[in-house]
């Protein structure tokens, strides 16, 4: 237990409307308990400027017009601009858009300019592409091939210019703003603290949690309703799901990683509006997934591969699988031309769990919308229509709880009920057994067969719903937080598998990882706290939510020894307590390396699609944070993880390259990487390319 001598303060919230107040003690160690924050009061605070968040914002403002009461709606987006963190190149179903903006097609600047023209499916063997009938759900009549990044930018323009929504890019929601005391009931009837808004990230801290001259404290957005619209595996959504046990009655979520490239192809090979899906090669028979090729307008093609993160073989590299896929004669013929050029690369996890994995949607003071909850119809590989519709339904419920005003925490349960009566439920109910069948005893081939029969004939009209099974034994893996990942627990030890054989790169058709990452435009301020925390989420939440309430939380938990030590110092901890904090940090890192290197052959080193993690030999040897001669380095800073074994290995993590895909948080077998937001405005710039074409 920590013993602190200094008096403890609760953070002060200044009720003013400017965005930032400057901290007084620049270059001092950051003390979250004494920092003065600017506070802004809004009716609805939406975290995440994607399709879900923006649709919710627009719908709220439409209700304002219809009903006459004013409402203040703010959208916070961690990307430097709207769309910069949205993975581009999608086929979208316009159903929700038709409901939200019935006149969208008459708006001069709308980006839905490329209707789908044909849709087909190919079964790939190493040498051949065999056409096969695609399930009816994958039909694309009436849909559009778009850049989702561009679509979101357009939607944000509509929200701001037509409806007066306040959209703030560069603002990362870092913490839930909780009430001081338990003042509300959670969906299960327990007395809990309610969500009263969010606090954005501090800007201008060093890696060791010292305040730079440019330091500005994060701002508190106090809201009657907080809508979490962070997309798949959101960092605040994960906390809310854990804090309010929102998965109590649902199945765990399961994810896929989608890796995507946009190419300009030879005009002779470009077929505007063509949609192609592939299954089979290069994935092995134990791994769920498939590829796609979408012909966008402007001579562009979006192509990529989704791989189910329940994959068992820890030797798999999703990035290498994508590069290998392009060596198939079908892709080679499309992309090998002097006129072809790769323009962008991106990756992001997506929800695959479907209806049975949708958690309880409401919590006291707010709700989960879009992929924060998980409404992707994986049979269609589409989630945008459901994300938008969920935002609209949440907006209608939020309007009702904001008007008339009430002192008690906002109850958004009407949204949960409305969603399950809406067409989202019907959309997901029909396909609920398709993805789940692959995880049953039917196995991969049985899953293909079952899905074919279900999608063609049964159409979900069966009395059963398959569960996403957890393995009987998941020893050594976290089970102390409701958001622990099912996918992580399904990973098998490296000794049970062989490394796949990947062909050498053939630039420009296929390239090494860093060449691809350069195409993401990713950038983070160099000297800032490490946002990839080596700590289990339950422990992280304990420090930054529970203990921080009394000014006792070490908010640097998981961010490295120097940072933890600095925080312990500022908390006024006695030497003994400080040493304990540091010892725990060391132990966490040692345990991380021991299991991840010892049992899983350094899975993250291959799985991260941006090459952020590395386990490398520890030349100094015998360092104190490692195991088996290996140590962890974060942002090029060596955090020694060494136990005395034959060779010394370091674990390096250069979080500057992080493209915010969230794979590490989902897949790390030890479940001890907690993805938190870096300074707002950092990360990939996926929209940049589309601004210039
Ligand atoms: C590879 C891939 C291919 C896909 N293809 C298709 C397709 O073809 N058709 C289709 O319909 N769907 C597709 N999807 C799914 C689709 O992208 C999602 O369903 C949809 O984008 C969900 O919208 P959302 O608003 O819930 O989340 P997102 O689109 O993920 O938007 C979330 C936003 O919130 C921001 N954010 C997150 N956390 C914070 C925070 N703490 N503070 C501030 N901002 C934050 C993010 O930066 C992002 O801008 C695909 C997904 C992937 C990954
Ligand atoms: S560090 Fe994690 S979130 Fe960032 S790119 Fe790698 S796997 Fe994705």
Task: Provide a compact summary of the structure.
With 693 residues, the chain is of the alpha/beta class. The protein is built from 19 helices and 28 strands. Accepts electrons from ETF and reduces ubiquinone.
Sheet with the most strands, sense and barrel status: 9 strands, mixed
Whole-number mean pLDDT? 88
- Flag low-confidence runs: 1-24, 474-478, 634-646
What's the architecture of the largest domain, going by CATH? 3-Layer(bba) Sandwich
Task: Tell how many strands the DSSP assignment holds.
Answer: 28
Radius of gyration over all CA atoms, rounded: 24 Å
CATH superfamily of the largest domain: FAD/NAD(P)-binding domain
CATH class call of the largest domain: Alpha Beta
Bound small molecules, by name, code or SMILES, are: flavin-adenine dinucleotide, iron/sulfur cluster
Distance between the termini: 57 Å
Fraction in beta strands: 15-25%
Structural class: alpha/beta
CATH domain fold name of the largest domain: FAD/NAD(P)-binding domain
Number of domains: 3
DSSP helix count?
19
GO cellular component, one term: mitochondrial inner membrane
Domain ETF-QO/FixC ubiquinone-binding: 255-350
Protein name: Electron transfer flavoprotein-ubiquinone oxidoreductase
Function: Accepts electrons from ETF and reduces ubiquinone.
